[in-house]
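USER:
Working in pairs, take the chain set out below, taking as long as you need, and write a paragraph about the fold.
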Amino acid sequence: MRIYSTLGAEQIIHADGTFDADPTDGSFEVPHHVGAEMLALHADGKRAFEDEPVRHARLTAEARAHREDPATLLSTVEALAEGLKAPDIQAVVDAAVREAITAERERVAAEAAELAALEAATKPDNKTAPKK
């Protein structure tokens, strides 16, 4: 059974052996009974481990939420910019934030144009519609 730590664990020490995380994706390949025990563990009310279907669903939902609302990302970047008003790093932060905001605005505009083009392509052509 393949499981993933949600807390960044690099090793599982169990009565049945020690299991190290795969360096490529952080997963653990464990026997089913060990995996079932690990999946039952919680820390601060959150799962300590997740299996592949749960991880896939979570990552998909996170990616979908990000893609569906790029304005949220833009507002987050702008809020971070406001929060980083330390005088000693202000010029560097301002430049980086302006660049990030510009790039995000361009990406949002490109997505909006693509969406408009797709919507236009799916609308029936009024010129070829039969007249009543």
Observations:
- The CA atoms of residues 4 and 55 lie 8 Å apart.
